Structure formats: C-alpha cells, structure tokens
Amino acid sequence: MARDDGGALADRARGAMLGLAIGDALGATVEFMTPREISAQYGVHERICGGGWLRLEAGEVTDDTTMTLALGEAWLRARGVPDAEACAQAFDAWMRAKPVDIGNTVRRGIVRWRLSGSTEAPLSSDAGNGATMRCLPVALACLGAAQQVTAYAALVQARVTHNNPLTDVATLCVVDMVQSALLGAGQHAIVERAEMLAAQCPEFDFHGRHCDNPSGYIVDTMRAVCQSMARHDGFRAVLTDVVNRGGDADTTGAIAGMVMGALCGERALPPAWVGALRPTVRAACISMATGLIELAPLCYPQPTRSVI
Predict the structure, then answer these.
(1) Using 50, 70 and 90 to split pLDDT, how confident is the model at 298?
(2) Cα–Cα distance between 247 and 225 in angstroms, integer?
(3) If we measure between CA atoms, which residue out of 188, 150, 169, 178 comes closest to residue 257?
(4) Comparing C-alpha atoms, which of 110, 121, 4 is closest to residue 13?
(5) pLDDT, the chain, mean
(6) Which domains, and CATH codes, for the chain?
C-alpha cells in the first residue's frame, strides 16, 4: 500500500478516531432522549457539554470509544490481526476497568468467555450494534490487506460478543466505508456503499420514513447513520443531524463520526468539538490512530479459521 508524502492518510486516520470520540461525546448527552425532548431542552443539540443519563463530565466518552481503544491495544500488542482469544482478553480487561457504561450483549459475551473460555457467541437473534461501534481498529490496521483478512479481523472481534448475520454485514459495511474514505473516496461514494448494503439486505433500506429515536438494534442504527450521510454534507452537519435523532445517540454519533472523520481528516474537524474532548481522550485517540495506521503496510497471514 502506497503512502502519500503529504500525510493525508495519517490525517484521515486521526480524523476517524477523533471523529468517533466526538460523535460519542456529543451523542452521550442526549442518549435515550426523543427528538422532541432534545428540541425542548437544547433547541438543536450541537455542543459537547457532558451530562445525559450517565452524568458525564464535559468531553468524556462512553463505551463506544473506550472499547474501540481496548480493541486497538490488542492490535498493537499483536502487531497484526489479534486472534479471538486476544480480543476476548482485551474486552475482559476493559470491563474489569469499570467503564461508565456497558451494553447487555457485550456484558453477556464477556461473562460467557470468563466462565467457559468460548470466544464465539452462539448464533443469536440479538442483532445489536456493539460489534460495529468498535470496528475502527480493523479498518485502520487492515487498510490494504486482502479482503479475506479484513473480513476475518472484523468478524472475529465481533463474534466474541455478537453473532448475528445483520450485525456481521453492517460491521463489514462500516469497515469498508471507513477504508474507502481513508483512501480518498468522497461522501457520494460512501452513500453508494450504504445503497449497496440496502440492496444486499433490504432491512437496511434507509429511504422513506425519517429514522428517529434509533435503538441499539443494528438496523435502526445503520438506517439513522446512512440517512444522515445521504441527506447532509460534511462532518458537522451529519453529526448534528444524527445525534439530534436521539435514541442510541452515542453509538449513531460514533459510527457516523468515524466515517465522516475519515472523509474529512483531523485538520477539517470542527476545532471547538476537538478542543472540547477531554485531553486524555484526545491524546489517546491520536496515539491509537497513529499506531494502527502504521500497521497497515504489514503483510498479514491468511487466517487459519474462517468465520465468514
């Protein structure tokens, strides 16, 4: 994979990681609120100010960002694709550190691993969004790798906690969106990938009714994110729209943020939002993005066990 001399790729990688954290922090304030409640309290919510049901300090993030960083650490330790055991260990250490929030499906998956050693959740009808929200390390570190390797890496981490075909296809789609953005695709091309997802799985069709108050169901999450990216231009407009839909706003914000941040790069992120992140969060995101994108030129071995 060729690197550009101007550092645009590294800038986009940092933009993706910071964008995820910005969307997470922005959305956490209004998580579980309806659009009407948001409008009554904030008018248009567009400031990273903390609060919300988690009573966060301004600039703090939730499990979307911290679990992504935990998975990223597993990649950096492995210097390549971490296996399922390494992913499970990373998630277990993250949970033992008492994150501010943890989804039910994620918790069950980690507890199952603790009790049984099983690194793959049983096939389930629970199509949650927790595996997709944390997939950014795969997109960064597997940039330029064979498609089979990227798919393996995306799904092996996902299935520690989530095993559902809808979650699988959404996770692969978001990884593809981020990688396309990193390589210079425009927003129109990203929306085309959303159209491809909807064509592959009609459940994800994002046309028609406005998807407000999206739940943690991956179909709701992706419909809200794809609608926002299709109907608004640029990082600020997309992020503002998606979090003001309420519902699982930290996760819709995080997913939209990683894609749109990869599109625009760190230098084009709104300075007020970047500056509003807690300094330790901002530094961790920049360091992680730098470390992961530096792994991308490595030649990854073919997986020894297929999960697709």
Answers:
(1) low
(2) 12
(3) 178
(4) 4
(5) 94
(6) 8-295 (1.10.4080.10)
